[in-house]
Amino acid sequence: MPLRKSFVPCLLAAWLAGIFPALAAAPATGDARHHSDGGILRIRLDSGPVRPIQAIPKNISDLRRLAGGGFLCVERGEYLIASDLGPDDYEYLVDGVLDYCSRALIQTFFTRGGGPAGKVNIFVFRDYPSYETGVRRLIGMEPISPYGHYGHSQKYIVINYETGPGTLVHELIHALMSNDFPEAPIWLAEGLASLYEHCRAEGDILRGDDNWRLPELKAALENNGITPLPILLTMTPREFRGLRESLHYAESRYFCKYMEDLGLLPGFYQEFRDGYELDPSGLRFLSKAFGKNLDLVESAWRRWIGFQYWKE
Questions:
Q1: What burial class does residue 172 get, using C-beta atoms within 10 Å of its C-beta: 0-12 exposed, 13-18 middle, 19+ buried?
Q2: N or C: which end of the chain has fewer CB within 10 A?
Q3: 0.70 exceeded by the pTM?
Q4: Where are the domains of the chain?
């Protein structure tokens, strides 16, 4: 899949102009082969000893000692951030993307958790070579994705910034949801995270924009290959991450976007979260949100997909 580099304008200039730039992320699945500027970026895992995953710092002093020279480190609320980005990109990432998106997402969705449960370490690396080396050195493991991931058990995020600031938003949602709605089914967890990997700000809320996942979805629609909603919405993580994983991401993202466009997404999320024990599938809450049964919802969603458009 394409590996897209996002142009990141100066945060202050963007704010003075009254514009928060769209955030874009490259694919968040773990493919081992990706196009980059017409070439191929291959994951290269050098042989050599790698420690077990080490203890993650819980304060800024320990983070600075772990990161070492060449890394800017700062504490922002529950987030401990270390990065080898330049000062401008670092300021944009910390005081812009992280601060703004965290507040917007908590206000819109994660009202029960209100933020992450305890300190979350965020390691942001300027490019893939730095990311590959840094994940090994700071986390003590091999990279499991060329983009980044969220470590649920130790509460950390690692990001290859070369894939764009939207990658941080994607993983940030996993960190916030793990405290707010840890039981969320995988379609909702990945659908919501993927929705805001390419987004824009409207006042104090985020809105998902169309992105590179749309062509695969439209091709599946044209070839009658879309997974029916009753199946997609009840998939286990193993099923979701099977051979059609990329399409499942696209379907989940664009079902969330459909709900967002209709103004239903935050209300559905919160009702499902609060009533999860009554219906772990969420199908009852979807029917309530739409005011119709799932067959009618799916028919309307498929028609809506046909009118969506994205140009790279």
A1: buried
A2: C
A3: yes
A4: 11-180, 205-306
